[in-house]
Amino acid sequence: MTVTLKDIARQVNRSVTTVSRALHDYADVSPETRALVRRTAEQLGYVPNVVARRLQKQRADAIGLILPSYGPRLSDPLFGDILSAAADEITRAGLDLLVSIAHRPEDEVEPYCQRVGERRVDSVWVVYTRCHDLRIAYLLERRVPFVASGRVLEDWFFPHVDVDYAHGMHSLVSHLVRLGHRRIAFASESAELTFVHFQREGFRQAVQEYGLEVDEDWIVENSPTQRGGYDAAQTLLSRKDPPTAIIAGNDLMALGVMSAVQDQGLEVGSDVAVAGFGDIPLAETSHPTLTTVRLPAQQMGRLVGQMLVMSARGQEIPNPYVLLQPALIIRQSTDLGLWL
Q: How many CB atoms lie within 10 A of CB 74?
């Protein structure tokens, strides 16, 4: 049987209003009465009606996150780190993180319409931003509070946390040029994603800066998986003048590139240098260990979580546009001398 405020009021011989205010720590209720009410509520097994309380406050005390089910997103090690760090900040603030799945790209906007229209969330977290993102266009049009993990190419202003992917790619190309490489290729994810756009931009700018030929054939697009990296590398290595260095858009793809190089009877770090992006745990235990660009995933998640909490509470975000700097991590896959 459900215990109500009336049951507690009857037991302590107080009004329902007094009991309610005591449970909510109102100062106009004496400490003795508050202690009595709380003790009685615990003895009777009273459970607060959280839904009713939220409706009364006209807040959901929840943040919405809608993930795509297509592709490897749910198994992305870096996203797992970002998600856990953001969730820690959100739950510490007493809010819920409601996660939904969009089964197809064209279905992604609809869940936002439902969550926002039904007032089931106070703010929304947008992940894997695209160069031209319909989700962000919708949220801006409806003036829905949100925070994004990434930017878009339009001149829109919205709170976001992102990484300087162009700078990270430039540092990789610079490292490979210093090692003497002149034929550098890029195994890329889909250019529809904003971070991939900035990776490609950084790659092209660095190649031009060092006086190398910018050949679009040296940029091969494939799925962001080990298999995708393997297939992209096979395509590149079959060219008449194959690259001596291959940069992959993420570390999983880079591991696939290394397998393709080895299957060709070549040595990673000697015959072909390989580099990745992300610095997932496998990067420092692979054979050879992987040169990569470290992304500050934990920091990114914490900042996103803090901004989402402020957004959900209607508070002004002091620094709404954050661009974090990545770090070049040099390991054996670009320099065989490191492990001889």
A: 13
Q: Same CATH topology for 62-163+298-325 and 165-295+328-338?
A: yes
CB 95, CB 102: distance < 8 Å: no
Cis peptide before 224 (omega within 30 of 0): no
Instruction: Write out pLDDT tens, residues 246-292.
Output: 999 999 999 999 999 999 999 999 999 999 999 999 999 999 999 99
Which CATH code fits 5-48? 1.10.260.40
Residues paired with residue 321 on neighbouring β-strands, in sequence order: 160
* d(C-alpha 202, C-alpha 208), whole Å: 10
- CA dist list (Å): 283 to 78, 153, 216, 289: 12, 31, 27, 6
* Annotated domain spans of the chain: 5-48, 62-163+298-325, 165-295+328-338
State which residues of the chain have pLDDT below 70.
1, 48-59, 69-75, 103-107, 113, 116-118, 336-340
| Phi and psi based region of residue 197 (left: phi greater than 0; alpha: psi -120 to 50; beta: remaining) | alpha
- Overall pTM surpassing 0.90 (yes/no): no
Fold classification of 62-163+298-325 (topology level):
Rossmann fold (3.40.50)
Structure tokens at 33: 């009465």
Domain 165-295+328-338 classification at class level: alpha beta
pLDDT at 292: 98
